[in-house]
Amino acid sequence: MRPLGKLTMCVWIATLATSFAAERLYVNDKKVPESREDLIAIQTSLQKHLAEARQATVCIKMGQGSGTGVIVSESGLVLTAAHVISGVQKDMKVIMEDGTEYEAKSLGLNSENDAGMLQIQSDDKFPFVRYEAKNDDSRSATRVGDWVFALGHSGGFDKERGSVVRLGRLIKVAETTVHSDCVLIGGDSGGPLFDMNGELVGIHSRVGRRLAQNMHVPLQVFHTHWDMLEKGEFIGDGPFANKPKPGTGFMGVAVKDVDGALEVTQVEPGYPAEDAGIEVGDVLTSLNKQPLKSKDDLRDRMKKLADGDRVLLEFSRDGKVNSVEVDLAKR
Amino acid sequence: MLIWAQPSLPSDERTNGKEVRAAFSEQRAAIQKCSAVIYDGWRNFSYGIVVSKDGYILVKASELEGREDLAVRVGETKYSEVKVIESDPRWDLALLKVDASDLTPVVWAESSDLTQGSWVVANGASSRSLRRVNVGVISAESREVKGRAPAVIGVVFKPKKESLEIHVVSPDTGAEKAGLKAGDIIKKFGGDEVTSRESLIERIRDFMAGEKVAVEFERDGKLLQADVELMPRDKAYKERKSRNDEMSGDYSKRRDSFPRVLQTDIPFSARTIGGPLLNLDCECIGMNIARANRAESFAIPVENLKKVLVELMKSVD
Question: CA B246 to CA A191: how far, in whole Å?
Answer without folding.
Answer: 21
